[in-house]
Amino acid sequence: MTELPSPAETSAANGGLPVPTVVSQAEVEALVTADVALHVTREALVAQAAGQVSQPDPWHLEIPDRQGEVHIKGAHIHGAAHYAAKLATGFYGNKDQGLPTGSGLSIIADAATGFPVVIALDNGYLTDIRTGAAGAAAADALAREDVGTAAVIGTGVQGVRQMAALLQVRKPSRLLVYGLDRGRAEEFAARMRLLHDWTVEVAGSAEEAVRQADVVVTATPSREALVHGAWLKPGAHVTAVGADMEGKRELALSVLERADVVAADDVAQCLRVGELQYAAAAGIAASLPLVALGDVIAGRTAGRTSAEQITVADLTGIGAEDAAVGSALADALAARRT
Ligand SMILES: NC(=O)c1ccc[n+]([C@@H]2O[C@H](COP(=O)([O-])OP(=O)(O)OC[C@H]3O[C@@H](n4cnc5c(N)ncnc54)[C@H](O)[C@@H]3O)[C@@H](O)[C@H]2O)c1
Questions:
Q1: What is the tens place of the pLDDT at every residue in 77-91?
Q2: Which parts of the chain are coiled coil (predicted)?
């Protein structure tokens, strides 16, 4: 195993001050697994809903001529040993050059002194895994126990992460995949068949997939509604992860209007940049059955109360989740040295 310097090791070259440990994506992947991410992301959602997090608004930069967007998020969960600041990018023209859409890095710092202790050069892995974990936490809190068919709209990085994470909490026997590009959807379906013993089919349309699904996950940068309320089966759960800034949208208002529970990872943030921005603009947000996802996870608020209800999770990605997985990484690095 690679010998690592201690997080916050001091250096004479740095005037005796702490020098952060720089870790690669491979090291981060080994130390912050999907199970670790699910555990700490749940805790972060619960803490956020309880008001136990200091979390500034996300910073968003758009570079339209490169189809680029840059997000900076961060937080301190009260009482935690670390705080974190995280950069995540999505440059949708990258695929034309054979590059991944997303990248990023995290800075994890000591909450007692402020000094950075870890710089994770993880190419966005921590963002990807915590977003998957939030999806799993939402499905676990809100979906029926007996999920037969799942549907995923979007066949990119989050499509993969969300399906892997869903399998942590539910075991569907069938998956329907819809993507803009049929060839990519077929490749995605082949990858999904390796994850679990389920029947995986490529659907001809989002509607065809959604109409049959007990759990629907949308994971695209769409700016138009992809899912409509009339398509939802009784008992369906919908998790939307794609809308994380103004202008992005995956769900029609009719989805929110049909829901018996609409859970937000951060209610205020979702009203600004999530699916709920459209409910706010239409003046119907106050009439929705809106709850904080962390309150449902903690049992402070009721989630689904019958098998026939429709539930929705609006996930914009919160700084508390970034702080939680960052802190887990710093702890794992420290534990590895002892
Ligand atoms: N909520 C969060 O915490 C969070 C975290 C990470 C990413 N995201 C967001 O999730 C979205 C997807 O991210 P990703 O990393 O998977 O990107 P990606 O580029 O890897 O995949 C995007 C997929 O969406 C498909 N797509 C694009 N427009 C579509 C449309 N109109 N209809 C159907 N499919 C469409 C693309 O073909 C591709 O398969 C982005 O909007 C990203 O910003 C949110």
A1: 999 999 999 999 999
A2: none
